[in-house]
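RECORD TYPE: inverse folding
INPUT: structure tokens
STRUCTURE:
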């Protein structure tokens, strides 16, 4: 017998292949103020987060200072308000920017945010006795800066497509020489999927946008042909990963294959490293449910696997939503949970020790080929229209997304697509995570907006009280407008504005005066809606709409309104499309309206019901303004319903104020919502609760 003290056999020693470096781990964060967000960032970095992902509030994203009329109710709600260089200094206090990898979800005003970021980094360098130019060259990160998708989904555009593309081009040609590690644009398919895109549309539309950007940079003549590969190498992508994780993984492999082909054949890039498809990912927030929200954890894990399992198509950076995002703003603990999901996969599992797991799989190869073929056909269709910009201006891409989103909703309503806890397996035990909904999410202090308004006014007052500083700010804005009227690069003029203490609102307004503003097509008028007669439920609702209209001697008319700066219009568009399919006459004017404009439209159009959609958390400020406005116009009898991510305590308060009904993400049945519209109109007009209809 062997002695018990003998050394163990080799079988006792686990094999440990060399591991790949993990992806950059981020959480999308920012709220209330620069100081509060800075504290959150430093806490997250201490927990092992390896990069920052800055969420800006809607006024910042759309180029307004906190004291602008359209900023009401929106300040500090979905991100951090950044108005000037002072705010940017506070946001990154004690965070050395020369050593950080920072992603900024900013589009229309991306140039000014990058200018503020660069100036803040240079100031840090000077304070530390370092060379500002050297630190600037080390800056690493991304400005999202994909304005094309803003016209299609997220709605934080400001300027028309042409000037917007010019801003992206200016940033690309500036950063390639001055900030060579910076990604000046992050082509975004994430929000396309949220707006209804199929995998083929997601690939095709984002690739078409990338082609438009690269064509514009090449046409500018500012980058020598021999350096064009450097521009291609700094184009990154930001994608979505849904719960159909096999299909999503194949989508990413299709992206890799198609990008390599386009950059090689269309742009002649010979360096394989420069042709690499570089992407970060936020997994699907659209699929997170308010009902049984604990199920969101496994959804998030599956979606993360879609972008990490395949080494040849692995994300370079990952940020995960929190389990409770369908309920409201996640708390720091919720964000920590999402970070830990990434860390367990990267450091406890053996995922990073192996080559690609799917190479040679006939199933995967067949699906990838199918996606590539479909995407190429759609790209060709868009190129025949003149490219991504004309396809946006004509409404083609928006119409297609609204239509595909409508079809997806129909599949869920019909039970063809199962959403656990929503349209199947709805029986549940009481959830201890949400036993107290008011503490299950984070809320923004009520005085955040007032403090931000006071602060930005004090900044401008103090600046302008100094004649030299006031002159510098005025001169920088005049120079900005002067350059905007030419073909010269706007980046240097923006840096001068940043150093002079110009606010985001002032910078954007100067460019509005030169470029004008833009209202994108809504996609509602061209949407296919329900292709046939619809389900029995829809047929019944349509009959009820018609019968009620006959009783009242008019066709029922509904106004769907998007007040404030919330540009996430997917829900409003689907309500508008289904209301039209149900027989209502629909008034929908798109996003970014003041309460006064919604009231004016409701009165002018003599509507029977006003539906208000708000997902940014500004419902407690904007909805009461609409109710008061209707009352003052003698139209207080028009019922108002509200939809959005609204905590129950807020919903109860809105009903007390006179709102007829509140709908949240758990109310996914559009036909049931349409039936509620009829019930509410009948009650408000003094008709019997149920009319007799022949179906």
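DESIGNED SEQUENCE:
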């Amino acid at each position: 017998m062997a002695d018990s003290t003998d050394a163990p056999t080799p079988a006792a020693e686990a094999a440990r292949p060399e591991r790949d470096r993990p992806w950059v781990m981020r959480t999308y964060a920012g709220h209330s103020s620069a100081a509060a967000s800075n504290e959150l960032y430093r806490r997250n970095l201490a927990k092992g987060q390896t990069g920052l992902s800055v969420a800006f509030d809607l006024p910042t994203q759309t180029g307004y200072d906190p004291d602008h009329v359209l900023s009401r109710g929106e300040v500090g709600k979905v991100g951090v308000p950044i108005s000037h260089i002072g705010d940017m200094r506070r946001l990154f206090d004690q965070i050395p920017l020369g050593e950080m990898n920072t992603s900024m979800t900013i589009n229309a005003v991306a140039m000014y945010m990058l200018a503020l970021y660069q100036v803040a980094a240079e100031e840090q360098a000077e304070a530390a006795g370092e060379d500002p130019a050297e630190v600037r060259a080390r800056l690493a990160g991304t400005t999202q800066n994909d304005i094309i998708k803003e016209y299609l989904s997220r709605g934080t555009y400001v300027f028309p497509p042409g000037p917007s593309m010019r801003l992206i081009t200016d940033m690309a040609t500036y950063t390639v020489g001055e900030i060579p590690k910076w990604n000046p644009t992050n082509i975004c398919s994430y929000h396309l999927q949220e707006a209804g895109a199929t995998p083929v549309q997601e690939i095709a539309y984002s690739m078409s946008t990338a082609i438009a950007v690269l064509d514009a940079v090449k046409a500018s003549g500012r980058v020598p042909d021999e350096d064009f590969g450097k521009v291609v190498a700094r184009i990154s992508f930001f994608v979505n990963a849904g719960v159909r994780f096999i299909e999503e993984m194949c989508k990413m492999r299709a992206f890799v294959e198609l990008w390599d082909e386009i950059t090689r054949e269309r742009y002649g890039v010979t360096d394989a490293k420069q042709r690499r498809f570089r992407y970060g990912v936020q997994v699907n927030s659209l699929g997170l449910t308010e009902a049984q929200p604990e199920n969101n954890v496994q959804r998030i894990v599956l979606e993360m696997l879609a972008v990490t399992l395949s080494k040849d198509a692995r994300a370079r950076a990952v940020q995960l939503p929190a389990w409770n995002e369908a309920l409201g703003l996640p708390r720091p603990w919720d964000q920590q949970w999402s970070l830990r999901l990434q860390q367990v996969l990267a450091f406890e599992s053996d995922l990073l020790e192996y080559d690609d797991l799917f190479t040679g799989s006939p199933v995967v190869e067949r699906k990838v080929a199918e996606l590539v073929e479909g995407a190429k056909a759609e790209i060709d269709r868009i190129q025949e229209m003149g490219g991504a910009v004309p396809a946006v201006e004509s409404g083609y891409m928006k119409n297609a997304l609204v239509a595909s989103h409508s079809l997806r909703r129909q599949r869920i309503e019909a039970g063809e697509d199962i959403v656990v806890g929503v349209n199947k397996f709805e029986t549940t035990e009481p959830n201890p995570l949400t036993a107290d909904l008011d503490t299950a999410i984070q809320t923004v202090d009520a005085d955040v907006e007032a403090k931000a308004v006071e602060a930005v006014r004090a900044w401008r007052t103090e600046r302008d009280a100094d004649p030299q500083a006031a002159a510098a700010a005025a001169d920088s804005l005049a120079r900005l407008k002067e350059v905007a009227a030419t073909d010269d690069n706007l980046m240097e003029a923006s840096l001068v504005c940043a150093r002079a203490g110009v606010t985001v609102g002032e910078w954007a307004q100067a460019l509005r005066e030169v470029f004008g503003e833009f209202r994108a097509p809504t996609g509602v008028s061209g949407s296919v809606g329900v292709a046939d007669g619809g389900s029995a439920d829809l047929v019944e609702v349509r009959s009820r709409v018609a019968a009620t209209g006959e009783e009242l001697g008019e066709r029922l008319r509904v106004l769907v309104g998007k007040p404030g700066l919330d540009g996430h219009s997917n829900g409003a568009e689907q309500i508008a499309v289904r209301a039209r399919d149900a027989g209502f006459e629909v008034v929908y004017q798109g996003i970014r309206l003041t309460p006064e404009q919604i009231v004016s439209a409701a009165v002018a159009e003599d509507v029977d019901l006003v539906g208000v959609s708000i997902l940014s958390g500004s419902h407690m400020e904007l909805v009461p303004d609409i109710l008061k406005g209707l009352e003052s116009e003698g139209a207080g009898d028009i019922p108002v319903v509200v939809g959005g991510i609204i905590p129950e305590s807020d919903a109860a308060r809105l009903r007390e104020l006179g709102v007829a009904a509140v709908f949240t993400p758990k109310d996914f049945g559009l036909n049931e919502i349409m039936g509620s519209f009829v019930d509410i109109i009948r009650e408000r007009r003094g008709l019997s609760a149920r009319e007799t209809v022949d179906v």
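NOTES: The longest strand covers residues 235-241.
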